[in-house]
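Title: Prediction job returns without error message
Component: structure pipeline
Severity: low
Priority: P3
Assignee: unassigned

Description:
Job completed but the reporter wants confirmation the result is attached to the right record. Sequence as submitted:
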Amino acid sequence: MFNPGNSFADQLFIAVTFLPLLPGMLIFFQKSYGREPLNLLLIICLANFIRDLPVHLYMLEPGNQHIIDNVFYTIELVLFARLFRTALPKQIRDIQTILLVAYLSSLTTWLTIEGWTTGIAGLEIIQSGVLIGLLLIDLPFLIQDKGLYILRSPLFWIAGGTLFYFLILFLLQCVTSCRPLLAEDKIFLSITTLIRYTMYMPAVLYGREAMPAEEKSL
C-alpha cells in the first residue's frame, strides 16, 4: 500500500511511476511498435514500469523488490545491448557479446548462490557501472560521421537519455552506499527519471519519421 508522507514527494513519486508509459503510449498511438528500434524501446519502457511500480508505491517488502530489480536489470541490460548492436562493427559486437555473456553468467551464478533477494550497495554500483560502460562503448559508433543528422537519430536520444540517467544514478549510489536514501535523494532521482523519458520522446518521433510512407499509412 502507498505510504503517505510529504505531499509533494508523494505526488512526484506517483507521477514518476507512470513516466515510462509516455513513450510507450506514443509508440502505440503512432502504430510504430513493430519497427526497430522502437519495438525494443517499448519493451524497455514497459519493463521499467513493471519494475518501478512496486517501489514507488511501497507495495513490496525490500527483499521481494530486490528480486524484481535483479531480474529486470538483467532484462534491461540484454535489451540495451540488442538495441545498439546494429550500430557496432562486427568485431566489436562479437567482443561485446562474449563479455556480456561472461558477466551475466557470473552475475546469475552469484545471485543464485547468495539469493536473488540480495540488494547490497556494491552490487547496485557494479550493475550501473556495467550499463554505463556498455553505453560509453556504443555511443561513439552511433555518432560517427553523422554530423548534425545525429540529432534525428532515435538511437542517439535513447543512448543520451539512458546514459544521463545511469550516470546520475551511479554517482548517487556511490554517495549513499553507506547510508539509506533520503527524501531529497529520491526527489533528485525522480527529476533525473523525468529527463530520461523526456529524451526518449524525440527518439519516438524521429523513429516514426524514418518509417517508409506505406508503413505510416497502415
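Comment from assignee: result matches the submitted record. The radius of gyration is 18 Å.
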